[in-house]
Amino acid sequence: MPNSVLKGRSTRKTHTQTQTHKHTHKHDSIITVCPVMTGKPLLSFSHHSATSLGPLSRLLSTSTLFFLSSLPHSLSLSPSFSLSLSLSLSLCFSRSPVSVKFIEVDNREMKEKNPWQTPVTIIITVIGVIAIVALVTVAVLQNKPLPQKYKYGIVLDAGSSHTALYIYEWPAEKDNNTGRVEQKHSCKVKGPGISSYASAPVKAGESLRVCMEEAKQWVPGKRHHQTPLYLGATAGMRLLNMENSSASDKVFQAVEGALQKFPFSYQGARILSGQDEGAFGWVTVNYLDERLKQGLETRGALDLGGASTQISFVSDNYDGSESPSNSVTFRLYGNDYNLYTHSFLCYGKDQALRMTQAHQSQAGLATVLDPCFHPGYTATKNYSVLYDSPCVSDRKPKGAPDTFTHIGIGDFLQCQAAVKSVFNFTSCKYSRCSFNGVFQPLLQGPYGAFSAYYFVMNFLNLTDTSVPLEDVKEKLKRYCATNWDQITQQHPGVKLKYLAEYCFSGTYILTLLTEGYNFTSESYSDIKFIEKIKGSDAGWTLGYMLNLTNMIPAEAPDTPPLPHVGYVSIVSVIAVLLFILFIVSLRPLWPRCSKQPQIV
Ligand SMILES: Nc1nc2c(ncn2[C@@H]2O[C@H](COP(=O)(O)OP(=O)(O)O)[C@@H](O)[C@H]2O)c(=O)[nH]1
After folding, report:
1. Of 566, 447, 588, nearest to 517 (Cα)?
2. ipTM
3. 542: closest CA among 148, 150, 157?
4. Selected catalytic residue, list 243, 277, 322, 522
5. How far is CA 397 from CA 138, 145, 276, 370, 384, in A?
6. pTM higher than 0.95, yes or no?
7. What is the mean pLDDT of each run of 10 residues along the chain (600 residues)?
8. Which amino acid residue places its CA nearest to atom 9 of ligand 1?
9. Distance between CA atoms of 259 and 249, rounded to whole angstroms?
10. Binding site, residues?
11. Cα–Cα–Cα angle for 242, 243, 249, rounded to 5 degrees
12. Where does ATP bind (predicted)?
């Protein structure tokens, strides 16, 4: 019997079922019944309105029905399930309510005439489906991210005021290009910086023990031996080395001996040059900001330590030809950078305070009035302690008493004048200078200011650089003039040494930035005071480790054009489209349904 279209209730073995979408309407439906080739009923349907199901939904439902009906008996699904499945697909694409009646037709006569009945067609269909499923499965499995394994690196920052340990972590399979290195943990070593142990070097090594034990806990045991451990010392050790190189060597020996007892891969301890310290701070800031990888405009780095301060930035006006000693060139991720960097030894905040106080105590009197300390502040200090640093030792007043009484008067303007006295603005043999005859190109771009810049400005509530510079100075003026008793009452938990020095430190920072580096009222707002970037401390240590482990490639790494999810999605969509195409390509083999549907 040819394809049959039944009008009204079928007089054959008919099975009627109504399936409705959300807002079911009672419509007369046209049921198109197609003959089967596998001996089981073949189903199709159409709505009374041609627009009820869109072309895609019709195609899907028809394809699905054909596919299901072509399955061999053993795999055949119940007619109602088959229809549900095909309807589900079509309903997904149909916005109109649909009412369908299901008619089962046993039409065995068609079996012989319809090519769908041949085993070859069935086999081709099954193989096609298996191939598509296999393709999607392979794509998913092949690109499935493996369980993440990490590698670690440890850097000890042996600063002038203290030592800090940083543990970095990055995905094991990406250590040479795309993986992001992040700070996993940091540990502040108790006690002063290692340069303070010149007279008892062994203690310098011992002081590191607690943080190193912590590192053993943070780095998984099986990674200990492959974890590089570096120690970099900065301006404190630079000064000790200048003053007493054998004492500095002994401190290093003690420190090395202590570090080698730990199971990490010890890579040595060394004193960083000021240029390295500035350049690696700049690398850290721009690496964490992802400006290097993306080739974006870089951010200058302003680092204020205890014994030195660094300024590093890229300027269009600087190609390294003027004052080449300030130039550091990098090729990172396929981009060339010509960095200007300078480290001012003795201009860290602790040494700058010494220099300022040395200026104020030149007369060698028993009393020193200090405008940078709060009114009501008074303390007895030792001349030999104040002048015990290569930054001031040659200025020690002769015939001064052992001690002096340090008395605060809290006057911002006088403090600013005293601070200015430590800068020399008189000589400059270059086209332009910052201070002390040091070349500095025109300032350019945004800046990140960290370490003591952040500690101080954060405490003083002055990190918002959109506030006009004049207002910032006015606030600081009021703060400096506040009585010391009031200050101590307002900040009971703050270390007294830090608390006493914030007026000086704030004044020094503003003077260094505006008078020293030539930031103006406008360019001051380009500075951002930062402590951390995306959870990692801003400082030289990360840049130092990235450099020593060659973790920033000179050339941009090849990255897959698509992320994993995008890749799998595209493969899946293409596979489904291929499947539909395959079904459509078998159109000549489709059983023909009557072209004249009739109302049931
Ligand atoms: N206010 C404040 N000052 C700090 C803190 N930690 C360190 N400092 C001071 O900030 C300055 C710079 O510290 P740091 O960056 O560790 O410099 P470094 O010791 O020279 O490497 C030093 O004068 C420290 O005494 C802190 O948590 N709060």
Report:
1. 447
2. 0.97
3. 157
4. 277
5. 81, 68, 35, 17, 10
6. no
7. 34 38 38 37 36 43 46 42 42 40 45 62 81 81 73 98 97 70 98 98 98 98 98 98 97 98 98 98 97 95 98 96 97 96 98 98 97 98 97 96 98 98 97 98 98 98 98 98 98 97 98 98 98 98 96 80 73 81 75 54
8. 452
9. 15
10. 306-310
11. 75
12. 306-310
Q: Ligand 1 centroid vs 486 CA: distance in angstroms?
A: 24
Question: Rounded to 5 degrees, what are φ and ψ at 401?
Answer: -65, 170
**What are the residues facing 41 on neighbouring strands?**
none
Core vs surface per residue 124-148: b (16+ CB within 10 A) or e:
ebeebeeebeeebeebeeeeeeeee
Task: Return the ligand 1 atom nearest residue 451 CA.
Answer: 15
Closest CA relative to residue 524, chosen from 533, 537, 511, 534? 511
- With a 6 Å cutoff on the Cβ, whether 506 touches ligand 1 is no
Kindly report the backbone phi and psi dihedral angles of residue 396, in degrees, each rounded to the nearest multiple of 5, phi listed first.
Answer: -60, 125
> Domain extents for the chain?
4-142+574-589
Give the residue, out of 451, 487, 509, with the most ligand 1 atoms within 8 A of its beta carbon, to mutate for a pocket test: 451
If one counts every other C-beta atom within 10 angstroms of the C-beta of residue 150, the result is 17
157's enclosing H/E stretch is strand 150-158
112 has catalytic annotation: no
| Enclosing H/E stretch for 170 | strand 163-171
What tokens appear for 358 in the block?
């040395």
Question: Which of these, 200, 215, 204, lies nearest to 262 by C-alpha position?
Answer: 215
Q: Does the beta carbon of 33 lie inside 6 Å of ligand 1? A: no
Q: Is 502 helix (H, G, I), strand (E, B) or coil?
A: helix
Angle of CA points 215, 219, 224, to nearest 5°: 95
